[in-house]
Every structure is written in structure tokens, then in C-alpha cells.
Amino acid sequence: MAITAAQVKELRDKTSVGMMDAKKALVEADGDMEKAIDLLREKGMAKAAKKGDRVAAEGMTYVTVEGNKAAIVELNSETDFVAGNAEFNELLRTVAKTIVEANPKDVEAALVLPVADGQTLNDVIIHTTQITGEKITLRRFAVIEKTDAENFGAYSHMGGSISALAVLEGADESTAKDVAMHIAAIAPKYIADSEVPAEVIAHEKEVQLKSEDLAGKPDNIKEKMVEGRIKKFLAEITLLDQDFVKNGDQTVAQFVASKNGSVKSFVRYQVGEGIEKKVTDLAAEVAAQLG
């Protein structure tokens, strides 16, 4: 029988499994929702899905390079303890290798990629979830390609809590890695001023014009002071204008130029950035249980 998108959505909402897994279960169960749930439970998927309401905001980032392709990934867990164990690290490497080889368009496409023994990447993640007892999530990834005239710089900081991947034209791999190290440490948002959206600059200008220390000053003085502050703001968020982390006497642009190179692109991931972590009060929880 034909399986509708509504049925797939309902099963996903009930079990938190991937779209393809939900569809397969419904096909096998001839559209019977309860039977499909039982099939997923038998395969161990529903057990992992029960953890779906937890927040996976810890984990690790990782960069893998294969020839002229590189992938940077973020794999989340619920605690940093699990993120440090062997099973999680093996999964992280498997995820990165699978993604860099296949170059899927998004996370959903990545999860259905074949890995081995008829398993998908999602199957392997669920299996590790069952071993660790924690929800594990592939949050995001980026696959970057370069030419033979370019170099990848890859760097992971603090055991993988932050990773950076940079592409430099010219220079050498060592220079590219130094730039990636700087990106990991200093967290620039853009390569150069020209990349900063006009609305970002306009917003910062609006904020600065309302600064209390500018109150009562003539408009021409205000404009001049704000102009200086905008320049400083841009220097803080753009990679090339930042002071190089390994030598504060030169900017990143000066360092790269001294190596006959130029920065083409970069990606920086920090574990859990943008995820609202659930804060728990252990003492209150214990007191509530005892009460």
C-alpha cells in the first residue's frame, strides 16, 4: 500500500527516528502505525528515540582531510563524559569519513548514507546511542573542496570542543594550520570587512550612537567617534584585521602575506554554540524526590 507523508510524519513524531527509517517501517507494517512502532522497537530504534526529549549539547567537533576534500563535523551527546569515550570517538571518525567521501547536501541526506553491512549512518548512530545510554545527534557538517594550488589548514582545540578548517591559496600547509589555530582561538566571523553585511554594520552604528558617553556631544563629533568605534568593531570580527594569535605584532593578513598566501575561506565549529542547554538544580531534584 502507498504510504503517505502524513503517516511518516506521525511515526517520526512518535519515535524520533529518521524519515527513511519511518517509511521503511510503515511499508513493512502495511501502514499499521502500532505495528510499525513495534518493528522500530524490535530494531532498537524506539529505545533510542525515547531519549529524544533530552538536550544533546555536549559532544565533539572533528576535521578530516582526504586529498582535495575536507569535512568538519559536530556530533553531540548529552554529557562530555560520553563525548570522551572510545565508542563516541570511533563514531565521530566514521561520520566524518562517510561525509567527506559522499558529500551529502544536508544532515538528512547524510543519515541515510550506507556505511557497512547494510547499515546507514543513522543506524550506526542509534547503535552507539544504545551502547552509551545517551542521545547522540549529528548536528551539522560542511564539506570543503580545494584546488591543487591551495592548502587546507585543520585544527582542533580542547579535545575537539572547537575545530577550524581554513583554505589558503599559496603559502603552505603549516601556514594554513597556523591560521586555523588562530580561527579556533579568536573566533572571527568574517574574512574581511567587505564580507560583513551592511545590516550588521548599521546595527552596530545604531548601538554606538546611543552610547551614554556620546550624549550631548555635537553630531559631527559623534559621527567621528562612532566611525572609529566601527573600525575597531570590524577589526575584532574580521580574520584578516585581527592581531595574529602567535605574534601580536602583526595582523593575520600580514602573516599570511609574508608567506605568499591569501585566505580563501574558513569554517569554525564550537560544540553546543546556539543550543539552549537545560540547567538542572541537582539539590532541588533530590529534595523533590525525598519529599
Description of the structure:
By secondary structure, the protein is α+β, with helices and mostly antiparallel strands. The chain folds into 3 domains: 5-53, Helicase, Ruva Protein, domain 3, CATH 1.10.8.10; 58-145, 2-Layer Sandwich (Tetrahydropterin Synthase, Chain A), CATH 3.30.479.20; 193-261, no CATH class. Helices cover 46% and strands 21% of the residues. The chain has 13 helices and 8 strands. The protein has helices at residues 5-15, 19-28, 33-42, 45-49, 80-83, 86-102, 107-111, 121-132, 173-186, 198-209, 219-237, 252-258, 282-290; strands at residues 58-66, 69-77, 137-145, 150-157, 162-170, 243-244, 247-251, 261-270. The strands form 3 sheets. A 3-stranded antiparallel sheet has the order 1-2-3. Helix 1 (5-15) packs across helix 2, helix 1 (5-15) packs across helix 3 (33-42) and helix 2 (19-28) crosses helix 3. The longest helix has 19 residues, at 219-237. The termini are far apart. The mean pLDDT is 88.
Question: Helical segment tally?
Answer: 13
Percent in strands: 15-25%
By CATH reckoning, the class of the largest domain would read Alpha Beta
* Helix content bin: 40-55%
Mass-distribution shape:
globular
The chain-level mean pLDDT equals 88
Radius of gyration: 24 Å
Would you identify the regions where 5 or more consecutive residues have pLDDT less than 50?
A: none
Query: H/E element string?
Result: HHHHEEHHHHEEEHHHEEHEH
Short description:
It holds the Pfam family EF_TS. The chain is α+β, with helices and mostly antiparallel strands.
